[in-house]
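Quiz preparation item.
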C-alpha cells in the first residue's frame, strides 16, 4: 500500500498538477473566463511549481552529465544545457520569471517605461522557452522530455494574457493624454495603439539583453554564452559536440547480480554473454530478459519508456548488491515478478521456452524454432 501511495502521489505531482495548471491557463486566455481564476496566485503557483518540476525533469534528462562523459546507462542522455554556460541561461530565465511575476502581481497601472521593460523581459523568457523546446525536440520519445515542455507552454500562455492585459490598460489611459505635439506627441500617439506597445517592448528587449550580458561578462561568462549553452552539448537539437562512446560494460542490473548469489538458491545454469561480457546465467535472468524482449517486439514505445525508467533505478540499486547474501535477497524478491513474466510469456508467445533458452547465447535468431533445432 505504501508503494501504491508513493507512486500515486508522484503521478499527481509530476503529471496531474502541470496538466491542471495548463487547463487553468488556457481558460484564463478567454475574456469571459471566471473572475475567480483571474488572480495572481495562479500565476505564482504556475511559476513555482513549473520551475520545481522542470528542474526535476532536467535532472532525469542528465543535467549534470556533460558531453565528454561516457554514458553508462541505456536510455541516459547528456545534459541539454552545457554546464560551463548554464549560469547564463538560468540567470536570464530568472530575470524573465521576475518580470512575468511582477506583471501579474502589480495590478494597478504601471509607469509606461517600467511596463515596457517588464514586457521586454517576458519576451526574453519566450525566446529562451522556444530555444529550450527546440533543443529538446530531438528526444521527444522520452517521458521527461515531454513533461519538460509543459512549463514553457504555460509560460507562453501566461505571457499572452498578461501582455494583452497590460497593453489594454496602458493604451486606455494614454489615449486621454493631452500631449499632442512634438516628439512626445508622436510617442503618445504610438503608445495609444496596441501594435505600438508590442514594437516598443520588442525594441526595449535589446538594451535589456545588453545590460544582462554585461552583467554576465562581469561574472566571467562569455558574450555568446547563451548560444554556447545549447551548442556545447551532445544528443540534442543544437548540439555540436561528439560524445565519447558509451561504456555499458559495468551495467549489471538486478537479475544479473542476483544470478551471482549462492548456487543452491539461485541455481546458475551456464555462462552467458551480455554485451561481450561473460556473466552467470540462471533461469530467472533468462525469463526476465525474454519478457523484456517480448515487450520490445510487441510494444516498442512502451518498452523504451520502461527501459529508461529501469536503467535510472535498477543500475544504481544494483551497485549496492556487493555480497552473495544480498544477491540471494534480491533473487527472492524478484521471484513474484519472475512468475508474472512467465505468465505473460506463455500467454503471448507461441514458443516461450525457446525464447527463454536463447537468452545470453550471443546469437541473433528471429526464428526461435530453427534456433532450437540448430
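Solution:
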Amino acid at each position: 500500500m505504501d508503494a501504491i501511495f508513493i507512486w500515486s502521489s508522484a503521478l499527481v505531482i509530476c503529471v496531474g498538477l502541470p496538466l491542471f495548471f495548463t487547463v487553468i491557463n488556457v481558460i484564463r486566455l478567454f475574456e469571459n473566463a471566471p473572475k475567480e481564476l483571474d488572480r495572481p496566485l495562479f500565476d505564482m503557483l504556475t511559476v513555482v511549481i513549473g520551475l520545481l518540476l522542470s528542474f526535476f525533469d532536467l535532472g532525469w534528462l542528465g543535467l549534470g552529465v556533460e558531453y565528454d562523459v561516457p554514458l553508462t546507462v541505456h536510455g541516459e542522455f547528456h545534459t541539454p544545457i552545457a554546464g560551463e554556460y548554464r549560469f547564463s541561461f538560468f540567470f536570464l530565465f530568472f530575470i524573465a520569471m521576475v518580470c512575468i511575476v511582477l506583471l501579474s502581481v502589480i495590478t494597478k497601472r504601471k509607469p509606461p517605461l517600467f511596463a515596457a521593460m517588464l514586457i521586454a523581459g517576458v519576451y526574453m523568457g519566450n525566446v529562451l522557452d522556444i530555444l529550450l523546446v527546440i533543443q529538446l525536440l530531438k528526444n521527444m520519445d522520452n517521458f521527461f522530455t515531454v513533461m519538460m515542455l509543459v512549463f514553457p507552454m504555460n509560460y507562453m500562455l501566461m505571457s499572452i494574457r498578461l501582455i494583452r492585459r497590460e497593453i489594454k490598460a496602458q493604451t486606455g489611459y494614454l489615449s486621454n493624454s493631452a500631449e499632442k505635439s512634438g516628439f512626445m506627441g508622436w510617442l503618445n500617439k504610438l503608445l495609444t495603439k496596441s501594435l505600438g506597445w508590442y514594437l516598443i517592448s520588442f525594441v526595449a528587449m535589446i538594451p535589456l539583453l545588453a545590460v544582462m550580458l554585461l552583467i554576465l561578462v562581469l561574472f566571467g561568462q562569455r558574450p555568446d554564452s547563451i548560444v554556447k549553452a545549447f551548442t556545447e552539448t551532445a544528443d540534442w537539437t543544437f548540439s555540436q559536440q561528439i560524445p565519447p562512446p558509451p561504456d555499458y560494460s559495468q551495467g549489471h542490473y538486478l537479475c544479473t547480480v542476483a544470478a551471482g548469489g549462492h548456487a543452491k538458491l539461485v541455481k546458475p545454469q551456464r555462462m552467458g554473454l551480455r554485451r561481450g561480457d561473460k556473466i552467470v546465467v540462471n533461469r530467472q535472468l533468462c525469463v526476465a530478459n525474454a519478457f523484456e524482449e517480448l515487450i520490445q517486439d510487441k510494444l516498442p514505445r512502451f518498452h523504451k519508456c520502461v527501459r529508461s525508467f529501469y536503467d535510472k533505478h535498477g543500475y544504481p540499486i544494483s551497485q549496492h548488491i556487493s555480497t552473495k547474501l544480498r544477491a540471494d535477497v534480491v533473487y527472492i524478491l524478484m521471484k513474484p515478478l519472475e512468475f508474472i513474466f512467465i505468465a505473460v510469456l506463455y500467454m503471448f508467445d507461441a514458443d516461450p521456452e525457446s525464447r527463454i533458452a536463447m537468452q545470453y547465447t550471443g546469437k541473433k535468431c528471429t526464428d526461435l524454432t530453427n534456433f532450437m533445432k540448430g
